[in-house]
From TrEMBL:
Name of the molecule in the record: ABC transporter
Gene Ontology molecular function: any one: ATP hydrolysis activity
Phylogenetic lineage: Bacteria, Pseudomonadati, Bacteroidota, Bacteroidia, Bacteroidales
UniProt superkingdom: Bacteria
Residues spanning the signal sequence: none
Gene3D superfamilies per UniProt: P-loop containing nucleotide triphosphate hydrolases (3.40.50.300)
Residue intervals of the ABC transporter domain: 22-114
């Protein structure tokens, strides 16, 4: 079974549907498969992903995740799916260098759980390398898994 299955997905905006944001997308993503969506700015990549994770309502088409049609799921189920199955991560090159661990969104999420970390809180994310970067990745992964 495909983990993500999209059939004839469309999303239009504007009065009388004059702006086509997503046009007849069909794709299947298997478990363990790495899938990249690339395109120019404004080409509909983020809009497509927002449809897939239920943040945008599609105009037509089907979206199934783990065999479940997301258009038939409750808001509560969609929230759980976003937490455990499907998430969006954006590249924030212009913001990340300015963040310290204490004001980073990742820190806020991880700080809700108890863990030991030896990295000084005042260090910029761009200054963290090697073993410390591995430690941070493990903390993030553990918080996602739990």
């Amino acid at each position: 079974m495909n983990k993500i299955e999209i059939k004839d997905l469309c999303l239009v905006f504007g009065k009388d549907g004059c702006v086509i944001a997503v046009n007849n997308v069909n794709l299947s993503i298997q478990e363990g498969e790495i899938f990249v969506i690339m395109g120019l700015s404004g080409s509909g990549k983020s809009t497509l992903l927002r449809c897939i994770n239920g943040l945008k309502h599609r105009t037509s088409g089907e979206i199934s995740i783990n065999g479940t049609n997301i258009t038939e799921t409750s808001k509560k189920e969609l929230i759980q799916m976003r937490r455990k199955v499907l998430a969006m991560v954006f590249l924030l090159e212009d913001i990340l260098p300015l963040l310290t661990r204490t004001n980073s969104p990742v820190w806020v999420v991880n700080n809700r759980r108890e863990f030991q970390c030896t990295i000084p809180l005042s260090r910029l994310i761009t200054e963290i390398t090697g073993k410390n970067k591995t430690e941070i990745n493990e903390i993030i992964q553990n918080s996602i898994d739990s």
